[in-house]
Every structure is written in structure tokens, then in C-alpha cells.
Design a protein that fits this description.
Blueprint: H1 3-30, E1 40-42, E2 44-60, E3 63-67, E4 72-77, E5 84-85, E6 90-94, H2 97-147, H3 152-198, E7 201-203, E8 208-212, E9 220-221, E10 233-238, E11 243-250, H4 251-254, E12 262-267, E13 275-289, E14 292-301, E15 314-331, E16 336-338, E17 341-345, E18 351-359, E19 363-368, E20 375-377
Antiparallel strand pairs: 1-20, 2-11, 2-15, 3-10, 4-6, 4-9, 5-8, 6-7, 8-10, 11-14, 12-13, 12-15, 13-14, 15-19, 16-17, 17-18, 18-19
Helix pairs in contact: 2-3
């Protein structure tokens, strides 16, 4: 073989090897990707809620601290803690001895004043009779003087005695008026003594449940009217049919909270139960605590089983500030992020770009890219976890559990693209 032919043979062999490699690589690249291993989930339609979370303490809307208007010793307590009472029901009796004595004294004084009044009225009658007699004497003396049978001095004397008798009537009438005034004063004293006696019995001011009884039989209580410290509390009654919760909502979330929104209430005593409530009031004034501004939200417990709750229980609440219905939902951990793009992987391994909406921290709304019934990987492959860890700028709203929203994991952005 000549040198030129040998050179051409080598070149042809090299080209054949390169061509075979290219064809093989092309054929290999055209082979379908194998589906990544892992569980899948079917894309379904459903509802997604956005919530604002807070915590607070359950307390009755109306709670009354019952105090005594009178001072004295407790001799009987007629109810127990937990009892249901009606307005006007007798709760506590105080020792009535002093009040009964005061009432008896007031009645005696009243009787005396009545007797004085009777005497004063009788004196008026006597004075009026004397006046009439003096008038007759004066007329007789005047007539006798005119006939020459009497003297002018007799006339002057009888005229003076008549004026004295008239003045005596005025005096007696004044005494009657004074006695009548004393009678009114004595009657008021009796009424006051009767009131003091009634105040030794303490009644329920409202319908409700007895929460606390801080006194016992034999306790000396002071009057709430006369004691500078406000008197002794003998009982606390609350209307447990109207329970409220005051929760603090961060300023970043308060703009979406409004009166009438539904609320889910959870307490440790019933971990498997969710109680219903509604937003009753949103405070217009924020509170600055450690440079964090919050607003108080009053929540009305509107559950039919609210009787299970107790005053003083701690409660976690979620206010439903928005709800989307009949939207496509995928697990949050199934969404991968790369740059400003999001996508999911179908069951066959295909990477499908999607347009997303909001998230509740567990699921995410998908607006475009997949259809109901599609099977996707239930979670992103481990190899993509780093690329998907950071949501793109302008990510969506997370679950509103704290300032600025909740979960912002790689699959938790959820903002509209």
C-alpha cells in the first residue's frame, strides 16, 4: 500500500468513528427521560383560605364584680361557684341586727313626731276657739261702751286680747308646719333604715354564672359606698353566653381584617375541635410593643357548643380574610423555583412551567400550566431543592401568621406572575 493510500485510509477510519459517535449520541439524546422516582399526586380543584393568626384569652363580654352597699358580717352564702343565677336572685345575707335596731329607732322617732303633730293641730283648734271668744268679748265691750254701760279701757283691753288670740293661732299653725316637716324627716329616716336593712341582702345584678366567691361565712365586708378602697368584693358573675377573645394582629395584616369575617378558634382543652367565631370589632388604634405595632381585634365566639369553653382559657384564632373557591391546587413542596420561573414535574418526568397564585403555607394555587387530573410528583426532586429554596422577587402571600406573612420556603412564594 502506498503512503498516500495509507493516509487516506486512516482519515476515513477516524471520520467513521466520529460519525458513529455522533449518531449514537443523537440516538441516545432522543431517548425519552426516565420518570423520576417518587410518589405522585393528582391535581385537583378546591378552596384556599388566607388567614390572619393571633392568640388571646377567652373572657365574658359582661362580667360584674358584686359588692355590698352595706357593711357587716356575712351570715349566709346561698350559691356556689359555677351556679347559674337570675337577676334579682338572693346571693348573700349579712347580719341584719344593727340595721333592724336602726329601723326600730327610726320608727319610734316617727311615732313621736306624729304625736307632736297631733298636739300641734289640737293647739291650733284651741287657739281658734280662744280667738272667737276674744272676738265676742271685744264686741260686747264695744257695745257696752256705746250704750254707756262700759268704759273705753274695757274696749281697748278686749281688743288687745283678741289680737293676742289671733297671733296665737299663727304661732300654733307654725308649730303644725314644723311638726309636719319633722314628720317628713322621720318618714325619710324610716325609709332609709328600711333600705339599709334591705342592703343586708345581696342580690344578683344580672343573669349569669358565678365565677368566684372570695368571701366566706363570718367575713366582715365593708360598704362599697362609704369605704375609700371601694368596698369588699363578695362575688363575680359573668354572662358566659357571650364570650369574646381579644387578639393582637400585626400591622402588616390588619388591613385585610374586617368586622363580620369568620374565625376558627382552637383551645388546648379540645385539640380535635374547632370552634366558630366572627370578628366583632377592629381597634382603630395600634399598640407599639418592642417596635412591633399590633391592633386589637375583638372576636365573638359564635359556636353552638360555646358552653364547653371556660373563661380564662387561652385560644389560638385564625381569621379567614380571603377565600378562593374552585381553583387548581398543588402541594407547596411540589413547586420548584428557578430564577423567576416556577414549574412542577409530571409523572413522566416532564418539567412543566406554571403560573402560580397565592398559598396558605401548605398548598398553592396554579393559574396556568397544568390541568385538573394531571399527575405530578408530590415533592420536588432532592437535586432541585437548592435551586428552589428562594422564591422569586414579588413572591406571593404566605399564611398570615406573623409580620409580613408566613411560610416563604422555596415552594411557598405563591405570588402571581
Amino acid at each position: 500500500m502506498s503512503k498516500n493510500k495509507k493516509k487516506r485510509f486512516i482519515i476515513a477510519s477516524v471520520l467513521a468513528v466520529v460519525l458513529a459517535s455522533s449518531v449514537g449520541g443523537y440516538v441516545y439524546s432522543r431517548e425519552p427521560n426516565k420518570a423520576p422516582a417518587g410518589p405522585t399526586v393528582e391535581v385537583q380543584r378546591g378552596s384556599l383560605r388566607e388567614t390572619a393568626a393571633a392568640s388571646g384569652t377567652i373572657a365574658p363580654h359582661v362580667s360584674v364584680e358584686v359588692k355590698s352597699r352595706a357593711s357587716g358580717e356575712v351570715v349566709e352564702i346561698l350559691v356556689q361557684e359555677g351556679d347559674t343565677v337570675k337577676a334579682g336572685q338572693l346571693l348573700v345575707r349579712l347580719d341584719p341586727t344593727d340595721a333592724e335596731r336602726d329601723l326600730a329607732s327610726a320608727k319610734v322617732a316617727l311615732d313621736k313626731v306624729k304625736a307632736d303633730l297631733s298636739a300641734a293641730k289640737a293647739s291650733v283648734t284651741v287657739a281658734q276657739l280662744e280667738y272667737k271668744t276674744k272676738q265676742g268679748d271685744e264686741a260686747l265691750a264695744t257695745k257696752s261702751a256705746e250704750l254707756g254701760l262700759g268704759t273705753k279701757d274695757a274696749v281697748r283691753t278686749t281688743a288687745t286680747t283678741t289680737k293676742v288670740a289671733a297671733a296665737n293661732i299663727t304661732l300654733k299653725n307654725a308649730q303644725v308646719t314644723a311638726s309636719e316637716t319633722n314628720l317628713k324627716t322621720a318618714e325619710l329616716a324610716v325609709q332609709d333604715a328600711e333600705t339599709r336593712l334591705k342592703e343586708t341582702k345581696i342580690y344578683a345584678p344580672i343573669d349569669g354564672t358565678v365565677l368566684a366567691i372570695p368571701v366566706e361565712k363570718g367575713t366582715i365586708v365593708s360598704s362599697a359606698l362609704t369605704n375609700v378602697s371601694g368596698g369588699t368584693s363578695v362575688m363575680t358573675i359573668a354572662d358566659l353566653s357571650d364570650l369574646r377573645i381579644i387578639g393582637a394582629i400585626d400591622e402588616a395584616q390588619i388591613g385585610k381584617v374586617a368586622k363580620g369575617q369568620p374565625v376558627e378558634i382552637r383551645v388546648d382543652a379540645y385539640p380535635e375541635r374547632v370552634f366558630e367565631g366572627t370578628v366583632e370589632r377592629v381597634s382603630p388604634l395600634g399598640k407599639d410593643t418592642s417596635s412591633v405595632v399590633t391592633f386589637d381585634v375583638e372576636i365573638l365566639v359564635a359556636d353552638k357548643n360555646s358552653s364547653l369553653l371556660r373563661s380564662g382559657m387561652s385560644a389560638d384564632v385564625e381569621i379567614v380574610v380571603a377565600e378562593q373557591k374552585d381553583v387548581l391546587l398543588v402541594p407547596l413542596i411540589a413547586v420548584e423555583t428557578s430564577g423567576r420561573s416556577r414549574f412542577v414535574r409530571l409523572a413522566n418526568g416532564e418539567q412543566r412551567p406554571i403560573k402560580t397564585g397565592t398559598t396558605d403555607g401548605t398548598r398553592m394555587v396554579v393559574l396556568e400550566g397544568i390541568s385538573e387530573g394531571d399527575d405530578i410528583l408530590a415533592s420536588a426532586p432532592a437535586s432541585t431543592s437548592t435551586a428552589a429554596a428562594t422564591p422569586p422577587p414579588g413572591g406571593g402571600m404566605g399564611m398570615m401568621g406573623g409580620p409580613g406573612g408566613g411560610n416563604r420556603s422555596r415552594s411557598g412564594g405563591g405570588g402571581k406572575r
